[in-house]
User: What shape does this take?
Amino acid sequence: MTRSRADISTHETGLEQGSADSRPYIWVTRPQPQADVHAAALAEHGLRPLLSPVLSIRKLPVPKTPPLVPEAVTGLIFTSLNGVLHFPEPWIAAFARHPVFASGTATLEAAKRAGFTDVHGSTGAGSRGMLDSVRTTIPAEKSAHAPALLYVAGATRTPFLEAALAPNYELTLVETYQAELAAQLTPLAIEAFAANQVAAVTLFSSRSAGHAAKLLQDSFGTRADDVLGSLLAVCISPSVATKARQSGFTRIAISNIETADSMAKKLVEQLKIGAIQTNLL
Assistant: This one.
């Protein structure tokens, strides 16, 4: 009988201290609650997840009413899954029929589940893909006034998209969450790395890739380069892979599509054949 991910316990994933499981660990860097979901998905694929999130997500307070009336808004931008997850539920009905621009497959699917009916994915990788999607769907040059966009994001973000849109669009920022950096690896993660029991890591964002490398450097000092070089870093997108390489990871694999399930399949493919096919960036 097939069980749901919620039915898979921590004991069954081999995460408990003192487990006799001899399989190498797969480091899960995602913040909670996505970390538990991703760990369960890896376990379903026969992999052994090791939870040590490099970020934590803190919900930020937002006003009871939107900063702009829906009639004044041309579209909404979500640059991350957490932006959708922390978008105020009372606001959704007001904007459900507005064009929504979502970065990445997970964000796009979450926006649809939340109740938005006109959701557009990026036309290319990263922020440049988002920029092209907005410009194509809502061309500023065809409007008498600068189109008003509600930009939903975290308190810490890269400035590219805002800077690129600002000259032709009226952006109203709504910060719904704060991604905070983990101070250190978990004790079990440090123990597993010290014993050379970690085979791979999954990286879902450029910020996670950079901070994952820093946590290894903080924990292992001069040995960190060896640890980074030994790990297979499975990245959700080419832009994340570029950051991972810049941060010291050398064995890089990129998910075929930008979903957690595709990343799990990429891990199985790479670890099963026993040969790392490094993507050229």
Remarks:
- Confidence is low (pLDDT under 50) at residues 1-18, 273-281.
- Residues 206-220 form the longest helix (15 residues).
- The radius of gyration is 20 Å.
